[in-house]
Amino acid sequence: MPSPDLNSPAGLVARIETMLPSLRPAERRVAEAVLTDPAAVARESISALAERCGVSAPTVVRFSKRVGLSGYPQLRVGLAMAAGHEHGRTGRPMTAGIVGEDDSLADIASKVAHAHANSIEETLSAMDLNALKAAVRTLSSAEKIDVVGIASSGLIAADLVQKLQRFGYSAWGQVDRHAAVTAIALRGRGDVVVGISHSGQTADVVEPLRMAASRGVKVVAITSDESSSLGQLADHVLTYRSKEPAFRLGAMASRIAQLAVVDFLLGGIAMRQAEPVRSALDSTFKAVGTL
């Protein structure tokens, strides 16, 4: 597991957010304490945090190592630096994005907007531009493009497909595993499959893309974790950063970050294929205008 960038709020805190579903129950309680108030955890001793979370001190150490650190002292340093970086950049503490039960609707709207803006900024700062350029080149020259995404990621897939079709590409959205493998069984070299999964572990996305890779189809992954199963099998991995603000009930900030990556790709394709894209957009605008 790569070591998080301790100078970035997303590098450590968002990685913990991403790992939350895969943690053991005791480790998850530590993670939730970190996500609720990173600055407070940075000030706590290991025994104080362990007592507050109802776990043992060795559990806190194991959690620290699970997120790629050498131990609890490094976790405290990383959280302190992340909190300081966030406050210096936005003037807000990292807890500014945490929605509480007593918050007013205005507070909730402000915190969600802050989390969304933060996700886009962190995604841009963490983006591997070489990977983005390579993905743009691959998609620009694709004969057929399938975009695989399930549930909330399926909505992002639909957005990417709709724009690619307006650009003049032969693109299809696959939001069902059976439909995805049926389509990919007919693909080959020259085609591209894009997989979208926040965790990078969703089997209904990973397995169709594994099939694509075995057939020599180029694979582009959009995920929060480049070391995930999806990231490992892709030719080009585009990662994003997000921290969910509201009780982690659903993919809010991650959805915005995924859309940002999609727009980075589309902007690159539009510039690389300026004339054919402009012609296709003109034709589709005129077609819509006649309705």
TrEMBL record:
Keywords: DNA-binding, Transcription, Transcription regulation. The keyword Transmembrane helix does not apply. Pfam families: HTH_6, SIS. PROSITE patterns: HTH_RPIR, SIS. It comes from the Bacteria. InterPro entries: Homeodomain-like_sf, HTH_RpiR, RpiR-like, RpiR-like_SIS, SIS_dom, SIS_dom_sf, WH-like_DNA-bd_sf. Residues 135-275 form the SIS domain. Residues 10-86 form the HTH rpiR-type domain. The keyword Transcription applies. SUPFAM superfamilies: Homeodomain-like (SSF46689), SIS domain (SSF53697). This is MurR/RpiR family transcriptional regulator. It comes from Tessaracoccus lubricantis.
